[in-house]
Structure formats: C-alpha cells, structure tokens
Amino acid sequence: MANVLLLTGKPGTGKTSLIKEAIARAGTKAGGFYTEEIRSSGIRQGFKIITPDGKEAILAHVNFSSPFQVSKYKVDIDSLNKVGVSSIQQALRECDVILIDEIGKMELLSPQFRETVRQAINGGKKVLGTIMLNPNPFADEIKHHPEVKTLLVTGDNTKHALAEIQSWLAENESHA
C-alpha cells in the first residue's frame, strides 16, 4: 500500500474539502497545511495557508509586491517557507499524517518546499495531499514515485473519493 495519497483534478472539484473531511472523520493526528481561497465580493483575490493548529499566512494575492508570480497572483515565498514548510517539517517529527495541500505552481517556486516534499514522501509516514493536474517536471516526478498513489477528483466522484481516502487512512492505520 502506498504511503502517499495525492488528490489531483481541476480547480474547484473539492480536493481540499475532501482532505479536511477525511482527516476530521479519521481523528488522526495530522500536521502540515491546506490552502483556502481569499475572496472579496465573490472574486478570488488570493490564497492563504492554514495549518491544523491554526497558523495562517497569505501565500499569494493580487495586491502583493513580489518577484514571484503565477497568473495574476504574486507569491510570498517567505510566508510559504515560514508557515507551510515549517509545518510539514513539524508534522514529520510529531504527526501520524502529513498534509500537503497543495503541490502546485505557487508552492513549487520554493526550493525549500520542493526539498521538504521529497523528505515527506521518503519519510515513511502517511502523506495526504493534492498535486497539480497539469504537467510539471517536479510534480510529474512526484506522481511517478513508487510510494505515491494519485486519485483523480471530479465534481461527480467526491463520495467515492472520500470513501477511498478513508479506506486508505484506515488500512495504513492497521500497518502503522
């Protein structure tokens, strides 16, 4: 059984919600981070990183000043490293499941993030996360790692995907 389960799919298909629900139902000790949209008047303005223990940082925003940009969003690599990367490193030491939401274009701008993802995947602990659907050299390397299983999430298969995540968490619990 793969130690790493990464959800992939188009934006808005519910990948982050599935991870949050599966972890809440499993009641397992999880660390790392997930991302949420920042919206103003219904329009997406950016993204923030949130850790299970309540730390937050803005990952990217349309009004940032940064040399790093993905689409219309300027990316704050320092916030990613201080909150996102450090929370993954802490989870490697202290938690049963490491959350990485997501392995995407913005996050991959950080060499520290890429190295920490490799450490998590090779660390022997369970990793539950999301990964970009589109081709990318680093993301493709991760998707093809022998410890990684990917699960395509569409708007139509969320119930099946949740059941599969729960089964994966339970099966891995029995092997822990």
In what order do the strands lie side by side in the largest sheet?
5-6-4-3-2-7-8-1-9
Backbone CA Rg: 15 Å
Tally of helical segments? 5
Tell me roughly what share of residues is in helical segments.
25-40%
Which assembly state applies to the chains in this document?
single chain
Q: How is the biggest beta sheet arranged?
A: 9 strands, mixed
Could you tell me the strand content as a percent range?
A: 25-35%
Total number of strands: 9
H and E string: EHEEEEEHEHEHEH
At CATH level 3, the topology of one domain is Rossmann fold
Uncertain segments are: none
Please, what is the CATH homologous superfamily of one domain?
Answer: P-loop containing nucleotide triphosphate hydrolases
Mean pLDDT equals 94
**Termini separation:** 12 Å
Class derived from helix and strand content: alpha/beta
Q: What's the CATH class label of one domain? A: Alpha Beta
